[in-house]
Each structure stands twice: as C-alpha cells, then as structure tokens.
Specification:
The chain has 191 residues and is of the alpha/beta class. It has a single domain, classed as Ribonuclease H-like superfamily/Ribonuclease H (Nucleotidyltransferase, domain 5, 2-Layer Sandwich), CATH 3.30.420. The protein contains 6 helices and 5 strands; from the N terminus they run E-E-E-H-E-H-E-H-H-H-H. Helix 1 packs parallel to helix 2 and helix 4 (128-138) packs across helix 5. 32% of the residues are buried.
C-alpha cells in the first residue's frame, strides 16, 4: 500500500447475546492491526423478569455505543436447539442488541456460531476454550488477563470474525479485476 494512503480506523462492537449472560467485546482496527478496547459480560440471572433483562441488554449496548462510537455491530446468531422457549428468549436478546445499534444508525451483521469458530480457530467445531485461546493470541492478551467467563471472549470473537470478513478481498468493493487487486496488494506481493 502506498505510504500516502491513510488507513481508515474501524471500531467494531461484538455481541454474544444471552438472557443469563451477554458477552461483549470492542476492537479497534487500522488495516491489519487490531487491538482490544474493552470486553466484558453483563450478568442477567439476578433479574427474574425477562422484559427487565431485555432492557438491561439494550441499556448496556447503548452505553457501549456511546462510549466507543463503533462503526459496526456484529452479533452471534442464535443456533437452533430443541428448546423453543430458550430460542425465543435468545432471539429477543439478539433483537434488542440489533435495535440498540440500529437506533444509532450503526450497520449490523450477524454470524452463525460455526462461522465465528471457523473464522477464529480454523474449525467450526472448536470449543469455547479454543476460541478464547485464539482470541487472546490474536489480540496479544495474556491468558492470565482473560476473563474466566467465556462469554466475554465470545463477544470479542464475534467482533474479530466481522473484522476478518471486512478484511477479506471478497468483501471489499472497488476492484475492477485481478490486476487492480494485485496492484493494491503490492506491499504483500513479491515480483
């Protein structure tokens, strides 16, 4: 890339929705450089009323949006399970997170759990522990500093997955063909 071409900063908020624990992670991306800004988990089990849990999710998402001004929100899509009530509640939690972003005109994307695992570890069948280890390695976070709750690292994994999708040449618009792509990658291609 030519030295005069300024790299655009992108802030991505990743959400691992849940009605017991919602994990979240915020990353800053400049080109291929990525750093963690914040990660954490919102504990909701102390609230017996489902509507109150949804309000807490909305409020926390708005707070993260106001603090970090993300360019994108990425959320893990609910996986299909046997318990219809659990699926309904999880879908509502996801919808509330999406609504928070959309209320601030932030573009949203959703990714299937297998897609996130594949993107982070190379295997769609990876365990939560494997995902957390790769998130720590990718973001250069010492394992001792990683939270015990895997929901927080899952939130970061969602954000990283979105970053990888945005970084993929297939996702970038504006290439008129292979030569234009190679020309743009001149710093990475040896002649």
């Amino acid at each position: 890339m030519p030295a005069d071409k300024k790299l655009k900063e992108q802030i991505i908020l990743g959400i691992d929705p849940g009605t017991t624990i919602m994990g979240y992670g915020v990353i800053r991306c400049v080109g291929k450089e990525v750093e963690m800004l914040e990660m954490g988990a919102l504990h909701l089990s102390k609230y017996p009323d489902h509507a109150v849990k949804l309000k807490r999710i909305f409020d926390r998402c708005i707070s993260l949006i106001e603090t970090h001004a993300p360019d994108h929100l990425a959320v893990e899509a609910p996986f299909f399970g046997k318990n219809v009530q659990s699926m309904l509640k999880l879908g509502r939690a996801q919808g509330v997170a999406l609504a928070a972003a959309l209320s601030r005109d932030i573009p949203v994307s959703e990714y299937a759990p297998r897609k996130i695992k594949q993107s982070i570890t190379g295997s769609g069948a990876a365990s939560k522990e494997q995902v957390a280890a790769m998130v720590a390695r990718t973001l250069k976070i010492p394992m001792a500093s990683m939270p015990k709750e895997l929901d927080a690292s899952d939130g970061l994994a969602v954000a990283l997955c979105h970053h990888f999708q945005l970084s993929s040449p297939r996702m970038q618009a504006g290439y008129s063909g292979w030569k234009a792509f190679v020309s743009d990658q001149s710093d990475r291609v040896k002649s």
